[in-house]
Write a sequence for this structure.
């Protein structure tokens, strides 16, 4: 998941760079002047957003899988703990437990 986070951060940096370039052009030239780079930058920005969305969905899938595995491990651990610590006693069975003879 850390690698996917890194990829998402790189995509966001690229998005911010291109958006900043578009905003700078508008600030310098006004919004009525056509920016020749606007269309290609917009395409790249949208592609980066789409890729970031896919990475986020992959992260969700990984975290759900990890949660399921941890949950299964907890169930197994509880069963093992119960099995190893639950020894019959007179209080739990109502009978006297036979002791091994030497």
């Amino acid at each position: 998941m850390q690698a996917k986070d890194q990829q998402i951060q790189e995509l966001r940096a690229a998005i911010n760079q291109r958006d900043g370039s578009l905003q700078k052009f508008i600030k310098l030239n006004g919004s009525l002047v056509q920016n020749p780079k606007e269309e290609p930058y917009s395409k790249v920005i949208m592609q980066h957003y789409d890729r970031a969305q896919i990475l986020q969905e992959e992260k969700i899938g990984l975290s759900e899988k990890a949660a399921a595995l941890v949950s299964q491990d907890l169930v197994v651990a509880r069963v093992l703990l119960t099995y190893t610590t639950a020894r019959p006693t007179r209080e739990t069975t109502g009978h006297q437990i036979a002791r091994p003879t030497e």
